[in-house]
Amino acid sequence: DRKFILRLIPSGIIHSGKTCVIGNGVVVDAGALEAEMEELCAVGIEARESLLISDRANLILPYHRATDKASEEARGEDKVGTTLRGIGPTYEDKIARRGLRAGDLLDMETFRTRVEANLLDVKRRLQADGTYLEESKHEYDSYFKHAKNLRPLVRNTAYYLNNAIKQGKNILFEGAQGTMLDIDHGTFPFVTSSNSTTGGAITGTGIAPNKITGVLGISKAYTTRVGSGPFPTELKDETGEQIRRVGKEFGAVTGRPRRTGWFDGVVARYSVMLNGMTAVAITKLDVLDHLPDIKVCVGYKLRGETLEEIPSSAALLSEVEPIYRTFPGWQENTSGLKDYNNLPVRARDYLKFLEDFMECSIGLISTGPERDQTIVVAASPLQGWLS
């Protein structure tokens, strides 16, 4: 009966007796993580007692946030639309092999020295572009205090997770963002700086591919996007505004209004393929309850040619015209329904089409924001997982 907005800590933290792991594929801001733990503590959840951080997770530092802001401002109208939290610059440092990792916190004296050296290097690089870094001693003193507090949580989580598997324990991997924000497979350059597809669960934790036993994809019954980038099915009219309003589509971290549009079947099928999905969860079905007509994108037209695949170029994807299949809306209340057979026939027809087009079974259907406003589809592979 409470709402939790989590950014770094896995959502399993709200369940007692579970160990939560921040893997090596995540970049961690020590101050942000401490603040998130304090928010949980205020509602009676002691995150520090059940949280581990990979010693190979790269750290976001104050100069990363400043660099992120300077980079976005320099782009002007071509900005990527980042959250300005320093995530991109931290991954840049990781790939350039100059990043600092959580394991470095075990020697704070050396850590401070390396931070100071990196800060000088960042200043030189920014000044070469005519940008000057804003900083304060207080900000860094505060950061070092937060970083020191995280040291007891740092360990080699790859060994921890693999030993847990040997002991027969169950592991749930929770991914962030979505397929179209993947650095390799998404709408480049309007993407995040990591792999947000299933492969990220492997490289980002140290678990072997053959240990993954199932993949649950999650998609709304319509499409949303935060920030810049191509969005073929975007609705810039009253329908789009209605979906945003009813669905409460505002960024959990930034509060920015999300862009809304019709379900993009081309993107969904692509995501199913890339991630090897076993089943899909369709959320926010009830948001569409009062629409007279509902559309699904089943292909693209580009310069007179019909496409069934997604162009690799963001510029070309911005040009495509969606090809729609239109369904009559059910215009009945589905909010809170828990039995698939109680859904309106037209809602079931819509879901069946999505299932067939994506080439993946729908295992869960969310009909409201509450935990129990969920339909588990009996015929799906998910039923086996839950039992």
- Structural class label: alpha/beta
Oligomerization: single chain
Order of helices and strands: EEHEEHHHHEHHEEHEEHEEEHEHEEH
Gyration radius, in Å: 22 Å
- Please state the average pLDDT score: 92
Major sheet strand order:
6-10-14-15
Continuous helix count:
12
The residue ranges in which pLDDT falls below 50 over 5 or more consecutive positions are none
- Major sheet description: 4 strands, mixed
The best one-word shape is globular
Query: What share of the residues does DSSP label as strand, in percent?
Result: 15-25%
User: What helical percentage do the residues reach?
Assistant: 25-40%
First-to-last CA distance: 24 Å
How many individual β-strands?
A: 15
Features:
alpha/beta, four-stranded mixed beta sheet, 387 residues
Q: What would your notes on this structure say?
A:
The chain is an alpha/beta fold. It contains twelve helices and 15 strands. The chain has helices spanning 30-41, 62-75, 87-95, 108-128, 137-150, 157-166, 199-203, 238-247, 265-275, 314-319, 345-358, 381-386; strands at residues 20-22, 27-29, 51-54, 58-60, 154-155, 216-220, 223-225, 259-261, 263-264, 279-283, 293-302, 305-307, 321-328, 362-366, 374-376. The strands form five sheets. Strands 6-10-14-15 form a four-stranded mixed beta sheet. Strands 9, 11, 12 and 13 form a four-stranded mixed beta sheet that branches. A hairpin with a 7-residue loop joins strand 14 and strand 15. 35% of the residues are buried.
